[in-house]
Design brief:
337 residues, alpha/beta, D-Maltodextrin-Binding Protein, domain 2, six-stranded mixed β-sheet, globular
């Protein structure tokens, strides 16, 4: 009997590349890969459910499941970072520390995306900045957003507005129309149809006035890890519900393939340090010292504190009406790993 042929969409990084290029093949499965920017991947999958296996925003996954969307996750988390450390501010805002964000205008790519969810939760719980005491500005349009696909409406009590269609987070921050935002996408190569900061890059303006909220990102990352014991994950992988019901064995076979792909990437470290190691290749040794040999653990057991926290944050911030149960979110065959 031939292998089950399944469509697969994902961004590309060192931990996933062996699955994309066929160096690792899940037992009994032939993956038909599509490489895509995560912003476009999540929008396409949430809106059209085109792919049988997809990388997925953790926050949008929680919202989609809470609203009855038919999919199940496996506990593979290919992307992690300290998302709050990517905030920058305009010097004229008189911000000198995270607590100074209270009362300010903060721009986010999308209100419901995982980076925004983690940033709000960490600002509130670690730095005392209430989500209700700042003004949120969202870049993505309703049509081209995760929230447009899941039926997002701003939570009650939140000060929320959308950025005009001819502007971006980058252009508004450099012109001090907002006080703080994550604008790293404006400096990355390439563009996508979802994030206006990738093509409205605001080359003009006094960028010397744009300062990092955390000047020493490495120190803040180490502080967070010591305090909480994990690096926040922002993506997972999902299997479309019809596939999981018809072929429940796919979940575990796919999970073990993700483990093998990650191990293959780790084994290549001696030859080529991947840029995705949290702080980059120049900090590889220090990264290992702080976070251990594997900064990207997969599985439920090693990630339960992180997963419990993101579930709590989603409910606390009004994105999910009820607190979801971890055991309902991941395929049963992967709950004990």
């Amino acid at each position: 009997m031939g292998r089950l042929r399944l469509s697969f969409i994902s961004g590309v990084n060192e931990r996933v590349q062996p699955l994309m290029d066929g160096a690792v093949q899940p037992e009994g499965i032939e993956l038909v890969p599509t490489s895509s920017d995560p912003s476009e991947t999540f929008w396409r999958q949430l809106k059209f459910q085109e792919f049988e296996i997809s990388e997925m925003s953790l926050s949008s996954y929680l919202i989609a499941r809470s609203r009855g969307m038919d999919m199940i996750a496996i506990p593979a988390f290919p992307a992690r970072r300290f998302m709050h450390t990517q905030l920058s501010y305009h010097a004229d805002s008189r911000i000198t520390a995270p607590g100074d964000l209270t009362g300010k205008r903060i721009g986010v790519g999308e209100y419901q995306q995982t980076a925004s969810l983690w940033t709000r939760g960490i600002l509130e719980h670690d730095f005392g900045v209430s989500q209700y005491k700042v003004h949120w500005y969202m870049e993505r349009s309703e049509e081209l957003s995760h929230g447009g696909a899941t039926g997002f409406t701003p939570p009650k009590g939140i000060s929320f507005q959308r950025i005009p269609a001819d502007k971006s987070l980058a252009s508004m921050l450099v012109n001090h129309e907002i006080d703080a935002a994550s604008v790293h996408r404006a400096f990355q190569k390439g563009s996508n149809i979802i994030d206006r900061s990738t093509h409205i890059r605001a080359a003009e303006g006094d960028w010397s006035k744009i300062k990092p909220l955390f000047p020493d990102r490495k120190a803040e990352g180490a502080r967070f890890f010591r305090a909480h014991g994990y690096i926040p994950a922002n993506h997972t992988y999902i299997i479309r519900g019809d596939v999981h019901r018809d072929h429940p064995w796919v979940a575990f076979n796919l999970y073990t393939a993700f483990i093998k792909a990650k191990q293959m990437a780790q084994e290549s470290l001696a030859e080529s340090i991947p840029s995705g190691l949290i702080f980059g290749p120049e900090y590889a040794a220090e990264t290992r010292k702080i976070f251990g040999a594997d900064p990207f653990p997969y599985g439920i057991k090693e990630n339960r504190p992180m997963l419990d926290t993101i579930i709590d944050y989603s409910h606390e911030q009004g994105l999910t009406a009820e607190k979801l149960k971890l055991e309902d979110l991941f395929a049963r065959s992967t709950l004990d790993v």
